[in-house]
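Deviations from the work plan: none for this task. Representative record:
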Amino acid sequence: AQRVTQPEKLLSVFKGAPVELKCNYSYSGSPELFWYVQYSRQRLQLLLRHISRESIKGFTADLNKGETSFHLKKPFAQEEDSAMYYCASLGGAQKLVFGQGTRLTINP
Amino acid sequence: NAGVTQTPKFQVLKTGQSMTLQCAQDMNHEYMSWYRQDPGMGLRLIHYSVGAGITDQGEVPNGYNVSRSTTEDFPLRLLSAAPSQTSVYFCASRALGTGGTYGYTFGSGTRLTVV
């Protein structure tokens, strides 16, 4: 079964510190993986797509098929990064499955 | 383009009442889906549709009905509201066949409270 796990519900770091939000997936095929961000009481916005290998707002994510991981990283956190982050996997039948989410708080 | 539009933004229902959450998109997307967002549980898929006339169940379909008579609209019906259905509901759409090129576009959500 398609499943996405974000082991940390809450993550708090200081401004300027590195950030890593963990995501592990399980899917028998070749998944398409995404990171979504949700700022306070707003709609979900697409942050990253693994297929494009891009960097958005300083965030990057590398797909590690051996570890079935897609961790989100940023070398220097900023206060405006405080938000809810969701890892998601697009698998069979075009279903987008989300992890439980990690609430990131950047302390000044 | 308005993107994905959800109405209403807020709703309070009494237990047993029925209502329909509306979702419309103007991007000619084939794929549409409904999620509910609950603290600590992330977003869970309720129902989805790969095109007009085609719907299927997601992870938590019980208590909800959907239909897809047009490409643009994908309403979600609560037949007999229960307090367990208190949640924030998001509608999302994407174009089929784009693979990982594009993610989903989400609506702004409907915050539903059942008392």
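Chain A has a mean pLDDT of 89.
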